[in-house]
Amino acid sequence: MIIGSGGATGISENSSLVGSDTILVCCCDTVFCLTLPSLELKWQAQADQATCFGIYNLQEGYVVHGEMEVTRLDKKGNIKWQFGGADIFVSLNDEEAFRLNADHIELTDFCQRKYLIDFDGNQISQEGIKNQ
Q1: Model pLDDT for residues 71-108, shown as the tens digit of each residue
Q2: What is the CB neighbour count within 10 angstroms for residue 119?
Q3: Which residue ranges form the domains of the chain, and what is each CATH number?
Q4: pLDDT at residue 129 tops 60
Q5: Are 38 and 53 in contact (CB under 8 A)?
Q6: SS3 of 4, please?
Q7: How many CA atoms lie within 13 A of 128 on its CB side?
Q8: What is the pLDDT, as a whole number, of residue 131?
Q9: Which residues face 98 on adjacent strands?
Q10: How far is CA 26 from CA 22, 87, 103, in A?
Q11: 36-67 tens-digit pLDDT
């Protein structure tokens, strides 16, 4: 059983990630790594101040889409970097708040500001508030 505190993570296509001998699960503000098939806790990492929405494979580690931050974890659960914007990374319209591309990550915050960051957590560009 996994128990967390903080924000509520909904179950989605990206809220867990299955590897060859592990499963990673976003629960509240934390990512849990369990061994397969025993489901023993291997490590856990608080990857956001509020809620972790999704976890994705990225090179030799993972990237976590959180409500307040995007977090890069290594395979042992150590935080390599975190990136936060001017507002939360949640969108109320049909636009994706988090998109993992081939060479960068595209983020949209609640006020519709767009951020592009590289895989080292460095901001490449930012667009202002969109006119609606």
Answers
A1: 999 999 999 999 999 999 998 877 789 999 999 999 99
A2: 16
A3: 16-127 (2.40.128.630)
A4: no
A5: no
A6: coil
A7: 2
A8: 41
A9: 107
A10: 13, 21, 24
A11: 999 999 999 999 999 999 999 999 999 999 99
* Cα dihedral: 57, 52, 25, 74 (round 10): 40
Between CA 54 and CA 56, with CA 32 as vertex, the angle to 5 degrees is 30
**Among all chains, which residue has been given the structure tokens 């976003």?**
26
Tracing tokens 């629960």 back to the chain, one arrives at 27
- Which residue type occupies 54? G
Point out which residues pair with 73 in neighbouring strands.
62, 79
CB–CB of 105/116 below 8 Å?
Answer: yes
User: According to the model, what pLDDT value does residue 12 have?
Assistant: 81
